[in-house]
Design a protein that fits this description.
By secondary structure, the protein is of the alpha/beta class. It has nine helices and 14 strands. It has two domains: about 140 residues, Rossmann fold (3-Layer(aba) Sandwich), CATH 3.40.50; about 150 residues, Dihydrodipicolinate Reductase, domain 2 (2-Layer Sandwich), CATH 3.30.360.10. β3 and β4 form a beta hairpin. α1 crosses α9, α4 packs across α6 and α4 packs across α9. The longest helix is centred in the middle third of the chain and has 17 residues.
Length: about 350
């Protein structure tokens, strides 16, 4: 008997990706339901070789549903996730609404799978920020080997991390520049086409942005609260795929060659690191792929026990949809959940 799974926010970038990945990975579901707001009722979305018509979240009964993959933003999640969880359905939420709640586990399966046991407190599991997810997949095996003390990361984040409207804005601005039309900025504070913007999310009192704070807070919760992390997060004119330049300081020595060998064996990591033109991975290469790619691994001689590397992943997959489905698989594989009923 399979599970009944609901995908909330099924018409969005991540929601559609969730449906694709559930089908690709043959998740043991007897029924998958696409849910969205009332304005999207009847909208059709693909699920494998099937077409699903979206139902309305506000009126949907979750009492017979086992797992809800929530990708409808923090405001919606704050309102609906507790209600859904109260009906006995486990919510795996992709927003920032529950990530910093001490009663809600924040999970990257390759990194802290054992923490999933804590879901019973609220019946909610949080998915990390896209930029954090790929980073901790790369950091975890290195931390186990030599104990990380400090991380400095600069991100190069694609516009898809800001949703479909952001992707549309990059496309429209690029076209406008080529045909000499006026360039309009609505989603971003400055022009994104042929430009980079050193602001993701709102500014905080200390001058950091919320995205930068998220990376720090989430890395501490997922990996180790003693790690010091500072980030500069930048939006770049790329449609899909986040890249990160990472500088790490360790408690113990770790050579570039040892790090390379460790990462080659690590779950979720794929090392492509040739010291030649093109011997590294770019966001374009990573789009549509599940792995966290690591390149440019080298020692940093300016600090004791320092290492640099380049990290790239598809933010819609590992940064969001894939990680959520992997969490659902973890629930099933560890027998932490059983189907409520035979789905229709």
């Amino acid at each position: 008997m399979g599970f009944k799974v609901a995908v909330v926010g099924a018409t969005g970038n991540v929601g559609r990706e969730m449906l694709d990945i559930l089908a690709e990975r043959q998740f043991p579901a007897d029924e998958v339901v696409a849910l969205a707001s009332s304005r999207s009722i009847g909208t059709e979305v693909s699920f494998g070789d099937k077409i699903l018509k979206c139902k309305v979240l506000e009126t949907y009964d979750f009492s017979g549903t086992d797992i809800c993959l929530m990708s409808a933003g923090g405001t919606v999640s704050k309102e609906f996730s507790p209600k859904i969880a109260h009906q006995g359905c486990i919510v795996i939420d992709n927003s920032s609404a529950w990530r910093y709640d001490s009663d809600v586990p924040l999970i990257v399966p390759e990194v802290n799978a054992d923490a999933i046991e804590g879901f019973r407190q609220r019946n909610i599991i949080a998915n990390p920020n896209c930029s954090t997810a790929q980073l901790v997949v790369a950091l975890k095996p290195l931390h186990d080997a030599a104990k990380i003390t400090r991380v400095v990361v600069s991100t190069y984040q694609s516009v898809s991390g800001a949703g479909k409207e952001a992707m549309d804005e990059l496309f429209a601005q690029t076209r406008s520049i080529f045909v000499s039309d006026p360039v309009e900025s609505k989603k971003f504070p400055k022009r994104i086409a042929f430009n980079v913007i050193p602001q993701i999310d709102v500014f905080m009192e200390d001058g950091a942005t919320k995205e930068e704070w998220k990376m720090m807070a989430e890395t501490k919760k997922i990996l180790d609260p003693k790690i010091k992390l500072t980030a500069t997060c930048v939006r770049v004119p790329v449609f899909i795929g986040h890249a990160e330049a990472v500088n790490v300081e360790f408690e113990r020595p770790l050579s570039a060659e040892d790090a390379r060998n460790i990462l080659r064996e690590a779950p979720g990591c794929l090392v492509i690191d040739k010291h030649e033109p093109g011997g590294y991975v770019t966001p374009h290469d990573a789009a549509g792929e599940d792995a966290t790619y690591i390149s440019r691994i080298r020692e940093d001689a300016t600090v004791e026990n320092g290492l640099n590397f380049w990290c790239v992943a598809d933010n819609l997959r590992k940064g969001a949809a894939l990680n959520a489905v992997q969490i659902a698989e973890l629930l099933v594989n560890r027998k932490l959940i059983t189907p409520k009923m035979k789905a229709a």
